[in-house]
# Entry
Amino acid sequence: MSILPLSPLTPMLRKLQRWAALSDPDRAALLDLPHKIRHLAPNQFIVHEGEKAGYSCVLLSGFAVRHKVAGNGGRQILSLHMAGDLVDLQNSLLDVADHNVQAIGRVEAAYIPVEAITALAADHPAVGRAMWRETLVEGSIFRESLLNLGRRDARARTAHFLCEMALRLEAAGLAVRERFELPVTQEQMGDMLGLTSVHVNRTLQSLGADGIIDRRQRDVAIHDWDRLAKTGDFDPAYLHLGGAVPAQTGAAALYGRETVRPDAA
Amino acid sequence: MSILPLSPLTPMLRKLQRWAALSDPDRAALLDLPHKIRHLAPNQFIVHEGEKAGYSCVLLSGFAVRHKVAGNGGRQILSLHMAGDLVDLQNSLLDVADHNVQAIGRVEAAYIPVEAITALAADHPAVGRAMWRETLVEGSIFRESLLNLGRRDARARTAHFLCEMALRLEAAGLAVRERFELPVTQEQMGDMLGLTSVHVNRTLQSLGADGIIDRRQRDVAIHDWDRLAKTGDFDPAYLHLGGAVPAQTGAAALYGRETVRPDAA
DNA sequence: CGCCGGTTTGAGTCCATTCAAGAGGAGTGG
DNA sequence: CCACTCCTCTTGAATGGACTCAAACCGGCG
# Structure
C-alpha cells in the first residue's frame, strides 16, 4: 500500500480491496467520499424496515445486525456486521428497506449519500466491481445461513457460527481465529441461529464440556479448530476469502461428492 | 411495447423490465445476446458447487432450483426459479460456484457467455441497473427465507411458501394467484422449507382441512387468500413487485411496529 | 399387468421449547 | 463503598412440534 491521506473510511477501503485490486486514484476517490460521522448508542436503529434511506452507512467501529421480525414476535437476525462493512446498500438502492439495521453495543458509523456511492462506482469501475462482488459474497453468506438454519441441528449451527465469526473477525483484522470476544449476547445468538437463548447456552456448554472451545463470559478460545469445523460442518469456501483458510475437514470432502439424487437422465 | 424481433430470450426481457425502464436499443441489444439453447432432462445439473462456469444460464421454460448439501446428507433448496430467471450470475462472477443449480422436470434454457452479459451491462447502463436490482431483490427473497426458516413453524412456513409461489408465478405470467400447479414434489418442498416430506404432507392436509386451500395432486387452489396470508405471516413487500399486490393482512401491520427492543438510549 | 416415484397414514422418539426460578456481573446512585 | 437494579447467564422439569421408521396406497407409464 502506498501512502494515502488519513481517513476514517480506511476500514471500508481495507474491506473492498479484498474483492478487487484498486489503483491509487481509486483509493483516493474512495477515501474522499463525502461523509458525516455519527456515534450510535447500543440498540439504536440505523435503518427501519419500510423506510426509504437516502444515505448509506459504513461501520467504523463496533457491530451491527440486520434483522426482520415475524408476526408471532420472533426475530431473525440475518447478518452481523463489523468495521468496514457497508451496511445498507440494498436498502438504499431498492424502493423501501425490507429489513432493519440496528447497532449492537456502541457503534461509530459514517453516513454517505447514496448518489456519491453510485457516482464513485460509475467513475471508478474497479470500485464498482469491488462493491458488486461484496454484495455477491454477502449473498453467498445468506445462502450458507439458509443451509445452516434449514438442515443442521443446534450443535452444528452453533459450531458453524463460531467458525464463521472467527474467520470473519480475523479477515477484518479484529482478532485471531483461535481467540476472540463474541460481540453478541446468547439471546442475540439465538436470534441468529433460530434457537432460544436457553438452548444456545446449553449448546455452548456442551461444546465446552467436549473440550472443543473454552469460554469465560464472552471470551471464546477455540482449542480444537478441526473438531469445531467438523461438528459445524464448516467449509469456508462460501466466504470467498481465497486460499487463506485452514485445512479442510472431513465435511468439506462431502460437499463435492456427486451422490446427491444422482439421476441425470 | 414496440415491435421487437422474435427471440427466445423474451422471458428474460420481460423480467428485467420489471426492475428498470428499458429503451428500444436496450431491448434490442438484450435480445441480441449470443446464446445457445439447450434442453435439460429432469434432475440434470446446470451448475455444480465448486466449479467455475464461463456461461450464464437463462430459463426459457420449466423450473430449476439452487441448493446446497450439508455434511449430514440434508439438502437445502435455496430458491426456485422459473422462466425468465437468470439462474447463475453469482456463480459466474465469483471465483467458484458456492451452490448447485439443478433442473426440476424438463427445462429449456439459454446459455450466454458471461462476458457478453457484462459487456451488455457496461454498454447499456439501464440493463446493468436492471440486473443489479434483480440480484438485490433476489437477496431480499433470501432474507425473507431466513426469517421463514428461523422463526416460523411448519404451518406458517408452508402457507408463506404458497403465497410467494402464487405471486411469483402470477408476476411471471405463468398462472393466476388463486390457482396454480406446484412445480415441485412434497419432498422438494420439504427441502425448501427445512422440513421432511412427511411433515409437509401433514401440513398441507391441515391447510386443506381448514378450507384455506384445495388440493388435487399438485394442483392448488387458494380459497381464502387473506387467511392463507395471515397464517403464513405473509407480507409481499419483500418481493418488491410494486403496488400490484393484494390487501395487507393483519401480519403486515405488525411489521411496522416499533416495539422490538425499543431501547435506544 | 406390474413397476416406480410420489403421497398418505400411524406409532414412537427426540430435539428444542416453554416456563420458571436463581445466580452472576456491571453500572448507578445514595 | 455499599445497596440496588437491570441484564445476562445458568439450571431444572415438563411439554410439544417435527422427525424417524415403516407400511400401504395411488396414479402414470412402459
Observations:
- The two ends of chain B are 53 Å apart (CA to CA).
- The longest strand of chain B covers residues 55-69.
- DSSP finds ten helices and eight strands in chain B.
- Chain B touches chain A through 60 residues (CB under 8 Å).
